[in-house]
Design a protein that fits this description.
The protein is an alpha+beta fold and 79 residues long. Helices cover 19% and strands 18% of the residues.
Length: 79
Amino acid sequence: MRVSIDRDVCIGAGQCALTSPDVFTQDDDGFGTVVGGPQDGGGTLIRVAARACPVQAITIHEIAGESGARRGGGGTAGV
């Protein structure tokens, strides 16, 4: 799984960083950013964070061949 945040859509609400701080943080300008972290093992919290985003700026990109791969989140890739 790969995660991205569309900075043109992000409003800096911070729900992603609160929900899954191992994967998301806020940059110096207050916008959400992906810090890496356990994107493979933290799938559930990443999906919860994507759903919690009030403007759906988070996109989850499933990698072909992943077991149990499901689409979550919304928005478009940007980072």
